Amino acid sequence: MQSLPLEPKIETPSKFIVRLYAAIDDPNVKSIIWSRHEASFLILDKEDFQQNVLPMISKTSEFSGFIRQLNAYGFKKRNNIDVNVREYAHPNFIRNRFDLLTKLSRRSTGIIKSESASLQNNIKFLNESNFRLTSEVLTLKNKVEEQDKKIKTLMEMFQQMFNMQADKGDGLGTGKFSERQLDYKEKKRKSPKYLRDGGANQHDDYNDFF
């Protein structure tokens, strides 16, 4: 007896996806609608959606449970200009593309947990990197402050040395000016004119210097 050929298995989207699509496509539902480009949907009123629409889509009555279901099917949240509007999208969830709905499958709990663990590890790595960078910045800041203190100390020392040199060069009996006076007097005493006059007018030595 010849066996009959098996009929091809017809894939159908999950009830959750069908009900979600129907609710968004229903013109009487105002709390959840298609976006302008019809490749994502918007939840305009969370409270109204949770009370009046969510019970028709899912067994859960909690909005957080609905979000977990979206994540399980691979929906991604998008940033919307209006912070009060929640927008979600999936590349196979597009208006009037019923043929794509069968490609939306619920991921296993193990995959979700694995992705969650990977995300947690990434967050931990970023926190550790941020801590290291903060420590390095503080260390560099301390080094710069220490360097500034050393430079300030050196500048003060140079200023003191400069002031001391300036003090030695002032007055009539000190520093370089005094040495010039003594040198001038010594040369004058050894001059023939000074010896011939017998050292007369010695009190004019200072005035002669000028």
List keywords for this structure.
alpha+beta, 56% helix, four-stranded antiparallel beta sheet, 7 helices, 7% strand, 210 residues, Arc Repressor Mutant, subunit A
Structural class: alpha+beta
Proportion in helices: 55-70%
The named CATH superfamily of the largest domain: Winged helix-like DNA-binding domain superfamily/Winged helix DNA-binding domain
Rg, nearest Å:
47 Å
CATH class of the largest domain: Mainly Alpha
Low-confidence stretches: 171-175
* Widest β-sheet, arrangement of strands: 1-2-4-3
Order of helices and strands: HEEHHEEHHHH
Specify the biggest β-sheet: 4 strands, antiparallel
Shape: rod-shaped
Termini separation:
144 Å
* DSSP summary: helix tally: 7
**Tally of structural domains:** 2
What would the CATH topology of the largest domain be? Arc Repressor Mutant, subunit A
Q: Any idea what the CATH architecture of the largest domain is?
A: Orthogonal Bundle
How much strand content do the residues show?
5-15%
Question: What is the tally of beta strands?
Answer: 4
Report mean pLDDT, rounded to a whole number: 79
Describe the structure.
InterPro entries: HSF_DNA-bd (IPR000232), WH-like_DNA-bd_sf (IPR036388), WH_DNA-bd_sf (IPR036390). Residues 169-210 are annotated as: Disordered. Pfam families: HSF_DNA-bind. It is found in: Nucleus. The protein is of the alpha+beta class. It has two domains: 15-103, Winged helix-like DNA-binding domain superfamily/Winged helix DNA-binding domain (Arc Repressor Mutant, subunit A); 109-168. 56% of the residues lie in helices and 7% in strands. The protein has a four-stranded antiparallel beta sheet with strand order 1-2-4-3. A hairpin with a 7-residue loop joins strand 3 and strand 4. The protein is rod-shaped.
